[in-house]
Amino acid sequence: MTILPGLTTTQSPFIEQARSHGELYIHQPYELYSDANHAAWRALFRRIQPLWRRHATGSFLRGVESLCLDPLHVPRLEDINRFLEPLTGFRARAVSGYVPAFVFFDCLRNREFPTTITIRGLDSLDYLPEPDIFHDVAGHVPMHTDQAFADTLVRFGDCAHTAAEMAAGIADPIERAERLNSIIKAMARFFWFTVEFGLMNTCDGLKAYGSGLLSSHGELGHAVTSPDVQRFPIQMEWVINQSFEIDHYQPLLFVVEGFEHLYHLVGELEEWMRAGRLNHVAPGEPVVKTRDIESFIQRRSHH
Fold this sequence. Notes:
The protein is α/β, with parallel strands linked by helices. The protein has one domain: Aromatic amino acid hydroxylase (Phenylalanine Hydroxylase), CATH 1.10.800. The protein contains 13 helices and 6 strands. The chain has helices at residues 13-20, 35-55, 58-66, 77-88, 101-109, 133-140, 147-168, 173-196, 211-214, 217-225, 236-239, 259-274, 290-298; strands spanning 91-95, 112-116, 199-202, 205-208, 230-233, 252-256. It has a 4-stranded mixed β-sheet. The chain has a two-stranded parallel ribbon with strand order 1-2. α5 (101-109) links the parallel β1 and β2. It is globular and about 55 Å long. The mean pLDDT is 94.
């Protein structure tokens, strides 16, 4: 087998080795980034900047500035964290790949964001089903410089702990798994339609704050301006029962009124959870993995 140089998503021996050893948290081996990796970052950054100026929330734009993101090279997470931690206490933490749901939310509760270190290839700039460092660092992390948004992510972590505590009180293992399957599905849908693909009404008009939009050159403008997209004020009962698919432009998006509104909504999500209103959400995507359910039952923080 030919060992491919660099840290290209799905083609990185470094990542394969870490996974084979069961290592979730890793260091960022910066010296492994190839010229092609840096060229991919450069191309992605260059073409999305004009769209950010047009369609991103002010918080995001200030975040990009605060982090001093290098437009020419894949960023070092230690540099990102040097600017980020003093602002909100958040830090980007390198991971080798998929993070089970409870562990992911627990990281947020501890003001850590699990961050992919590989980057898509130059032949895959438009779409990649897996997250990469451009999605995570250029899409997610600038929002983590905003105190209200950062506190909202921590609140998500609180919800996950509430779900785990409630599940621990269910003696029957089948009932417990079914209950968690529904609650995790509801949380994943809420997270998708807010943190990943959220829109916000601002004094400058409709803007994007969701990282899936802010890291997608094709979808960002489409989400904000296209007549093909349905945009509705966010409603809890709709969002938790609304399935989504990841492999095409989103036809339906939800709008919040600000980050204080979003924080309140996550609190409402937890209230609905405690009241049993997330126990039987509509079936459909996303499919909840067994690993995700087990992560809530085991409640390992992995710190």
